[in-house]
Amino acid sequence: MSPYLHFGEIGPRQVWHAVQAAAAGRGSKAAERGAEKFLSELGWREFSYNLLYNFPHLPVRPMQEKFAAFPWKHDAETERAWQRGRTGYPIVDAGMRQLWNTGWMHNRVRMIVASMLTKDLLIPWQHGAAWFWDTLVDADLANNTQGWQWTAGCGADAAPYFRIFNPVTQGERYDPAGEYIREWVPELARLPGRWIHKPWQAPRDTLRDAGVCLDDTYPSPIIDHSEARDRALAAYERIK
Ligand SMILES: Cc1cc2nc3c(=O)[nH]c(=O)nc-3n(C[C@H](O)[C@H](O)[C@H](O)COP(=O)(O)OP(=O)(O)OC[C@H]3O[C@@H](n4cnc5c(N)ncnc54)[C@H](O)[C@@H]3O)c2cc1C
Asked: Which residue ranges have their beta carbon within 6 Å of ligand 1?
């Protein structure tokens, strides 16, 4: 729905009323709950637009001013690895490759890849927002800015800073059979589901049988997630 909303092919009020009418027509609690959830997403859109209207500097400056002093890292090579889906974290790489190839990524994956960039790799959220701006079919200044600031922890009503997405557990929870990985990271397609979200932990024989050679056919993790988490929390302590 987002590209159509962004380009004004359909309006939020139209969607709002159509969804309410459809849910009322069904007359079930489940339909009501589904409609409520969907409408709350539209609410996020309206919130984002309201923020941008009232704080037009948000695409470049954090809502929470203390983040202007955050010790971000500038590392073009690491940023490139993230953009091109070569981080060694399969769920991140699948998302970034899907984005590059189709211009699309599910909201859950957007949050995971944004958390990887801003919290694990400490690369400024503005860089991620710029990449999304160039590649998303639904690129939208208000929603994109809000999505990045929320994930980076510097936005209005942002995720608490310690909420750092674990790319392995997120992958296992939302893609338990590894189908998404198999589609977008085909070099891992023959790995059993148990290892597909963490190939660096797979036994050597399993990797060999699946045709995976770490650092040759697929990279090792660009950073150790638990060390990166500690580093991010320490960085946050400096501006708290
Ligand atoms: C880092 C990051 C960047 C994002 N960049 C964009 C962007 O450039 N453009 C964009 O439209 N959305 C963006 N989003 C929000 C969200 O990911 C997309 O709106 C959603 O994935 C679109 O899919 P859908 O239409 O199936 O959403 P549905 O879940 O069906 O939601 C319906 C509509 O509500 C709005 N919406 C849903 N979730 C959000 C949200 N979290 N914030 C604001 N509005 C929302 C969208 O207009 C969407 O079309 C971003 C989220 C993150 C975490």
From this structure: 1-2, 5-6, 38, 41-42, 44-45, 48, 107, 110-111, 114, 132, 136, 138-140, 143-144, 146-148, 151
